[in-house]
Amino acid sequence: MGFFGDDKPKVSGDEFHKVKSYLSEKGFSHRELEQLGGYFQGSMHEEGSQKGVDKHEVDRTVDWLREHKHHHSFSDGQIDTIEHAMKKHL
Questions:
Q1: Domain residues for 21?
Q2: Which terminal residue of the chain has fewer beta carbons within 10 Å of its beta carbon, N or C?
Q3: Above pLDDT 70, what percent of the chain?
Q4: Cβ-contact 10, 54 below 8 angstroms
Q5: Quick check: 49 pLDDT over 90?
Q6: Is pTM, for the whole model, over 0.85?
Q7: Is residue 41 part of a domain?
Q8: Per-residue model confidence (pLDDT) at position 69
Q9: How far apart are alpha carbons 61 and 72 in whole angstroms?
């Protein structure tokens, strides 16, 4: 991490679009992709060097999905696929 900036790798908006395309190819529905986008929306709309999803945010969201299965419709396998796709684009 630099003194005046945030050098952590992040999934950008363009990369997140690629993640969603990949997940669509893996059978995720439009509704599921929209739901996933909602979980990362805040990070995508941050200002400046904070914009994007870093590894900590990916881990935190994946952990939340695993621990709160009653709040979404993602299966364990889908959560694994989400984690893989997001970390691939960091």
A1: 9-26+52-90
A2: N
A3: 92
A4: yes
A5: no
A6: yes
A7: no
A8: 96
A9: 12
